[in-house]
Task: inverse folding
């Protein structure tokens, strides 16, 4: 197996045109020309498989910008099929929001379950009840307690510890508390 053309460079921008040619997929089938010209959904789906495979190769080589350019040409949204999506419910007005500040009442949607202050920086949350807060506060809480600090009735530490193992690309779990960690808000 030949070494990656990107192995000896620090940034993707340093790769010259000759090395970029090595990153192209060189295998073709008899139906590829028809597929490139076809607008039939079954042909687009087959071609998208090639694009996603190529994007995976680029990802492994560390060529993120090239990978993103390839994924822009995929006919469906690749990200819709993977991972966990998180949503927020504002504690003040119970509206759904995707931002840390509620779009309805303009209050902060993320508040620590222990101290009730706005959560910025590292936070943790329970995958069962959804409550959470500052990582340091929750670590201290769960050294002594097993139930949710909100009083919702969830046994966060036990519930999270007994969940089946999650696959890659899931949030990290702090094994000392059994609570899932989100990196930053």
Result:
């Amino acid at each position: 197996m030949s070494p990656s053309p990107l192995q000896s460079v620090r940034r993707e921008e340093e790769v010259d045109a000759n090395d970029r040619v090595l990153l192209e997929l060189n295998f073709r089938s008899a139906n590829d020309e028809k597929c490139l010209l076809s607008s039939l959904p079954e042909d687009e789906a087959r071609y998208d498989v090639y694009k996603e495979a190529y994007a995976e190769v680029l990802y492994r080589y560390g060529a993120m910008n090239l990978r993103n350019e390839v994924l822009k040409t995929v006919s469906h949204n690749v990200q819709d099929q993977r991972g966990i999506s998180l949503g927020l419910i504002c504690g003040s007005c119970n509206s759904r929001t995707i931002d840390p500040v509620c779009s309805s009442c303009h209050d902060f949607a993320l508040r620590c379950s222990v101290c009730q202050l706005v959560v910025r920086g590292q936070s943790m949350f329970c995958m069962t009840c959804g409550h959470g807060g500052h990582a340091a506060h929750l670590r201290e809480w769960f050294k002594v307690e097993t139930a949710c600090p909100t009083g919702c009735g969830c046994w966060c530490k036990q519930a999270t510890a007994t969940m089946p193992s999650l696959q890659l690309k899931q949030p990290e779990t702090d094994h000392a508390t059994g609570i899932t960690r989100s990196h930053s808000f």
Summary: The CA atoms of residues 119 and 141 lie 16 Å apart. Confidence is low (pLDDT under 50) at residues 4-10, 20-27, 163-171. The radius of gyration is 23 Å. The first helix runs from residue 17 to 22.
